Amino acid sequence: MKTVILSILMLSSSMVSKLQNKIEFWLNTDYDQFYLVDGNEAEIANSLWINEDDFNSRIEVSGSVMGIRTERSGKVKVIVEVFDKKPDFESQDEYDHIVECSFEIKSGHLMIKNCPDFELVKDIILPVGLYRIRVSSANLSTVASDYSGVDYYRLSIWNEKVMSAKSVLKQYIE
Known about the structure:
Layout: E1 3-5, E2 19-29, E3 33-38, H1 52-57, E4 59-62, E5 65-69, E6 74-83, E7 95-105, E8 109-113, E9 120-125, E10 129-138, E11 152-159, E12 167-170
C-alpha cells in the first residue's frame, strides 16, 4: 500500500484553480460500493444506503465515512484529483452521473477503502479542513448483467470554507 502525500497551495480567489495531484488506480469492490474515510475509522454505519435519496444520488456521508455507489461489483477504475480550490470543470458530457457533497477531514488522512472488507486501498494525506468532493461516474450503461463493463469514477476534491448540501448535478437513470 502506498501513501500519497499531497500539499495544497492556497492561491488568491482571482486565480485559476490548480491541479495539485492526480492518481489513478483500480480497486476491487463488492456490493457496488467503496468508501472514503477520514482517518482510521474502524467501521461503517449500519444506516448507510437506507435512504432512497442517498441511494439514487449514489453518495452518502455517515459520520466520517462517505459511501460511493458504483454500477457494479468487481474491479473498477478510480481517478482522484486534488485541486487548491473549486476547478472550472470542462464539459461534463462524458459522465452519466455527477454528485458532490461536503466532507470534513479531521485526521489529515483521506483513506480510500474497498467493500466489504474495508481494506485500505489508498491513503491520501491532506491538510485538516472542509472539502468538497465531486464524484463523476462514466460509462455506467456499459455494465452488463455479468458485471463486466468499462465504468470508472473520477473524484475531484477541493477546499471548502463552509459545509454545503449534497447536490446532484446530473442524474443517471437506470
